[in-house]
C-alpha cells in the first residue's frame, strides 16, 4: 500500500488519508477524483482494516461501477465485496431486505420504461379515455415528474383531467403486481432510511460512504446519502461543479454548493493538477469555463507537455466536415493509432448519421455508445419500409411493418389474415385488396383501402418529387408525423429530425450520383443495406461515436468534436437563457477535457436543414479558446475530397449536352467559371434557355 500511496500527488494523498470529518473533493476534470476514490477504498481495506462489505461507493452508471471495481481489485490484487453501485442498485438491495415494511413482497419486480408504458396503456383503456389525448409516454413522464416532486399532481390536473385517477390506478396496479418503477426505487430507498431503526442500522453498518460524480446527483439521492452519514459525517464526495450536465434530469448543482452547509465541519480539498490532458488542451478548457459565472472557481494546471495545437477545421458544409473527420481518422489509423483510442463527439443524436456515412465510406469500423445506429432507429426503419413497399410490391416484411403503423385498427387478427392471403397471392397490393374484401368491419375495410391509397400515392410521387420532399410526403400522407407527435410527445421532434436527416441523405446521394426517380431509391436502399451488412462483419477494435453527455468520466487520446455551430453547440434550446448557455458551456468543457493528446474541433459554414442548405455561424465557444492554442487546418493539408466539389471527370472539359432533373436534355451555349460551380447556360426543349450550376447537371456529351 505504501507504494500505491506514492502514486498519488500531495493533495490526492491528503484526500486518501483524511478521515477526521466529512470530505468534499472539488476538482476539475482529469485531476484524479475517481482515482482518489478508488485508492481511498483500497487504503481503508489494506491499512485501516475496514471490512470491504461495510464500504459503500456510489457511481453514476453501472459501467462506471464495473470499472471502479476492476481498478480496485487491480490495486488489491484480489476480489473484494465492497458495495460499488449506483443509487438505484443500492435501493434495490435495501428493498430486497425490507420491502415488506412498505407493503411489497421481497421478490418484487422492477418495471422498466416499456413495462411502464404497457401498464399505462391498459389503464387508459380501462378508464375509457381517449388514447390520443393520453399518450402512454407522456403520461409516463408526467407520473415520473410527480413522483420526483418536480410537479404536483394538482398542477398536472390542469392539463390532464383524469391524471389523479390514472396516477392512483397506476400505483395501485403496480402494487398489485408487486412491482416498482425506477422512481419508486429511489423513493422507497429514501423512505426506508427515513425509518428511525433502519436509519440507525445502516448508518451504523456503513463505516464509510463515497460518491463519485456528486455534482449530478438529484435531491432524493442526496437525501439517501445524507441519512446514512449525517450523524457521523463518514462521507467523501467528489465532484466538479463545472461538469454538472444533468440539471434537466433533476440533478442539482446546489447539492454540491450546500454540502458545506449540511456538514459545517466539512473539509474541502481541491485537486488542481490535471494528469489527463496535454498543456494546450487544458489551457483551452480553462479559458472556456472561465466564462461561466455560476461556479466556485478553481484553477487547473498540468505538467504534461503542451503537445500539439488544437486543430480547427472550418468546413464549407456538413458533408465536408464529416469527410474531414473520417479522412483524418484514416490517416491516424495508418500511422498506427488504435481505433479504440479515437472518439468522435457530437451534441445531438441526429448528427451521427452524416458521420456514420463518412466513416463507412472510408471503411472505418465504429461503434455508437449509448445510442442506436442511424439506420436501425425505429422511425428511420418505418419510413424506409413505406418507401420499400412503394418501390417493391413483393416486400412483404416491410408491408407487415407498416400495416398498423401508424395505428389504423389493423391489429393481430388482420395481420394473421394478411399473412394467409400472402401465401397464395403474390404482390402486396393485390393481397391488400383481398384483405379489404375479407375483413369483418367496414372500419377495417376502409383502413385497408386507405393504406392501398397511401402506397399508390407514394408510388406516384417517386418520379416527380425531390427526395427530401418525397420523404416528407411519406410522413404526411401516411399520418406518420401525427403518430410520432402522439406517441412520443417528449422526443417526437428529435425523431422527426432524424427523418429529415434521411431526406437530406437521399438528396445528397442523388446529387452525388446524379440519379433520380425509382433508380435513385433502389440504388440508395441497396447501398445502405450493403453497408450495414458489412458493419456486422467487422470485428475487433472500433472508433467510438457518442454524444457529449455519454462521454462523462471517460478519456481518449484523440477526440474530435463536430458541429461547433451556434444553435447546435450551444444548442438552440439553451440560447434564450444565461443558465442554459452556461450548462452548454459545462458540456463543452466536459467534451474538451476527455482528450488526452489531440483535440480536433470543427464546424460547417453550411449545414443541411429541412432539405436545403442554411448558413451557420461558428460556435461562440470557439472564440473563447485563445487563438494561439489553435491551428487551423487548411484544405490542401488534408486528404479527401472537399465537399460539393464533385470529381466528375467531365467537369473540367467543356460540356456539349447536359441533363437536368427537371428540364431534361439541353444543348450547352455558354459556360462561365470552372468546376462544379460553373454556370452553364443551355437550351432545353421544353423550357427554353436556362442557366444552371454545373453540379446539378449530368454531362451527356
Ligand atoms: P473526470 O472529472 O473526467 O471524471 P477525474 O478527476 O475523475 O476526471 P481520473 O479519471 O481519476 O480523473 O484521472 C484522470 C487520469 O489521470 C487517469 O488516467 C488517471 O489514471 C490519471 N491520474 C490521476 N492521478 C494520477 C497520478 N497521481 N499519477 C499518475 N496518473 C494519475
Ligand atoms: Mg471521474
UniProtKB/TrEMBL annotation:
Keyword ATP-binding carried by entry: yes
Keyword DNA-binding annotated: yes
Catalytic activity field: Couples ATP hydrolysis with the unwinding of duplex DNA by translocating in the 3'-5' direction; ATP + H2O = ADP + phosphate + H(+)
Membrane spanning residue stretches: none
EC number(s) per entry: 5.6.2.4
Binding site for ATP: 27-34
Domain spans labelled UvrD-like helicase C-terminal: 279-553
Keywords from the UniProt entry: ATP-binding, DNA-binding, Helicase, Hydrolase, Isomerase, Nucleotide-binding
Molecular functions (GO terms): helicase activity
UvrD-like helicase ATP-binding domain segment(s): 6-278
Pfam families for the chain: UvrD-helicase (PF00580), UvrD_C (PF13361)
Family per record: Belongs to the helicase family. UvrD subfamily.
PANTHER family assigned to the protein according to its UniProt record, in alphabetical order: ATP-DEPENDENT DNA HELICASE SRS2 (PTHR11070:SF2), UVRD / RECB / PCRA DNA HELICASE FAMILY MEMBER (PTHR11070)
Protein name: DNA 3'-5' helicase
Species assigned in the record: Desulfurobacterium pacificum
Amino acid at each position: 500500500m505504501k507504494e500505491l500511496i506514492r502514486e498519488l500527488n500531495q493533495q490526492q494523498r491528503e484526500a486518501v488519508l483524511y478521515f477526521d470529518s466529512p470530505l468534499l473533493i472539488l476538482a476539475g476534470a482529469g485531476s484524479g477524483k475517481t482515482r482518489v476514490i478508488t485508492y481511498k477504498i483500497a487504503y481503508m481495506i489494506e491499512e485501516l482494516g475496514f471490512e470491504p462489505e461495510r464500504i459503500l461507493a456510489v457511481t453514476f452508471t453501472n459501467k462506471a461501477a464495473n470499472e471502479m471495481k476492476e481498478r480496485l481489485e487491480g490495486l488489491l490484487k484480489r476480489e473484494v465485496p465492497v458495495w460499488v453501485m449506483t443509487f438505484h442498485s443500492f435501493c434495490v438491495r435495501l428493498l430486497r431486505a425490507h420491502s415488506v415494511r412498505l407493503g411489497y413482497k421481497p421478490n418484487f419486480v422492477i418495471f422498466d420504461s416499456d413495462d411502464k408504458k404497457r401498464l399505462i396503456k391498459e389503464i387508459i383503456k380501462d378508464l375509457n379515455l381517449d388514447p390520443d389525448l393520453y399518450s402512454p409516454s407522456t403520461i409516463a413522464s408526467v407520473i415520473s415528474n410527480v413522483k420526483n416532486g418536480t410537479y404536483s399532481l394538482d398542477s398536472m390536473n390542469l392539463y390532464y383531467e383524469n391524471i389523479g385517477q390514472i396516477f392512483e390506478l397506476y400505483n395501485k396496479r403496480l402494487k398489485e403486481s408487486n412491482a416498482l418503477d425506477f422512481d419508486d426505487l429511489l423513493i422507497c430507498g429514501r423512505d426506508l432510511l427515513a425509518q428511525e431503526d433502519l436509519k440507525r442500522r445502516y448508518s451504523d453498518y456503513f463505516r464509510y460512504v463515497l460518491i463519485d460524480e456528486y455534482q449530478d446527483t438529484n435531491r432524493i439521492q442526496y437525501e439517501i446519502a445524507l441519512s446514512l452519514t449525517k450523524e457521523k459525517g463518514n462521507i467523501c464526495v467528489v465532484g466538479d461543479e463545472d461538469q454538472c450536465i444533468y440539471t434537466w434530469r433533476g440533478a442539482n448543482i446546489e447539492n454540491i454548493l450546500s454540502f458545506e452547509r449540511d456538514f459545517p465541519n466539512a473539509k474541502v480539498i481541491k485537486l488542481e493538477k490535471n494528469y489527463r490532458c496535454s498543456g494546450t488542451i487544458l489551457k483551452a478548457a480553462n479559458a472556456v469555463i472561465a466564462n461561466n459565472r455560476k461556479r466556485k472557481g478553481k484553477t487547473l494546471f498540468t505538467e504534461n507537455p503542451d503537445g500539439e495545437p488544437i486543430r480547427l477545421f472550418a468546413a464549407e458544409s456538413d458533408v465536408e466536415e464529416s469527410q474531414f473527420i473520417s479522412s483524418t481518422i484514416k490517416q491516424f489509423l495508418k500511422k498506427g493509432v488504435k481505433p479504440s483510442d479515437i472518439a468522435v463527439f457530437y451534441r445531438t443524436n441526429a448528427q451521427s448519421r452524416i458521420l456514420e456515412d463518412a466513416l463507412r465510406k472510408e471503411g472505418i469500423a465504429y461503434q455508437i455508445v449509448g445510442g442506436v445506429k442511424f439506420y436501425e432507429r425505429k422511425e428511420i426503419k418505418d419510413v424506409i419500409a413505406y418507401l420499400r413497399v412503394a418501390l417493391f410490391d413483393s416486400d412483404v416484411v416491410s408491408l407487415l411493418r407498416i400495416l398498423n403503423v401508424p395505428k389504423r385498427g389493423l391489429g393481430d387478427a388482420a395481420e394473421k389474415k394478411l399473412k394467409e392471403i400472402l401465401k397464395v397471392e403474390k404482390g402486396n397490393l393485390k393481397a391488400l385488396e383481398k384483405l379489404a374484401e375479407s375483413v369483418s368491419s367496414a372500419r377495417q375495410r376502409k383502413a385497408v383501402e386507405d393504406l392501398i391509397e397511401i402506397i399508390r400515392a407514394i408510388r406516384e410521387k417517386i418520379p416527380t418529387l425531390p427526395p427530401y420532399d418525397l420523404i416528407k410526403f411519406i410522413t404526411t400522407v401516411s399520418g406518420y408525423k401525427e403518430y410520432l407527435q402522439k406517441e412520443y410527445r417528449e422526443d417526437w421532434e428529435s425523431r422527426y429530425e432524424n427523418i429529415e436527416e434521411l431526406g437530406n441523405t437521399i438528396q445528397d446521394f442523388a446529387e452525388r450520383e446524379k440519379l433520380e426517380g425509382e433508380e435513385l431509391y433502389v440504388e440508395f436502399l441497396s447501398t445502405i443495406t450493403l453497408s450495414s451488412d458489412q458493419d456486422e462483419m467487422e470485428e475487433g477494435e472500433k472508433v467510438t461515436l457518442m454524444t457529449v453527455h455519454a462521454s462523462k468520466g471517460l478519456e481518449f487520446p484523440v477526440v474530435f468534436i463536430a458541429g461547433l455551430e451556434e444553435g447546435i453547440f450551444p444548442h438552440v434550446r439553451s440560447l434564450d437563457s444565461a443558465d442554459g448557455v452556461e450548462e452548454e458551456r459545462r458540456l463543452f468543457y466536459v467534451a474538451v477535457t476527455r482528450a488526452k493528446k489531440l483535440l480536433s474541433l470543427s464546424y460547417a459554414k453550411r449545414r443541411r436543414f429541412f432539405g436545403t442548405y442554411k448558413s451557420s455561424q461558428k460556435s461562440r465557444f470557439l472564440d473563447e479558446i485563445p487563438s494561439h492554442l489553435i491551428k487551423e487546418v487548411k484544405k490542401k493539408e488534408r486528404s479527401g475530397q472537399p465537399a460539393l466539389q464533385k470529381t466528375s471527370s467531365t467537369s473540367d472539359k467543356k460540356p456539349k449536352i447536359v441533363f437536368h432533373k427537371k428540364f431534361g436534355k439541353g444543348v450547352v451555349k455558354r459556360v462561365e467559371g470552372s468546376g462544379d460551380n460553373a454556370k452553364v447556360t443551355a437550351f432545353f426543349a421544353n423550357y427554353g434557355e436556362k442557366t444552371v450550376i454545373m453540379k446539378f447537371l449530368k454531362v451527356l456529351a
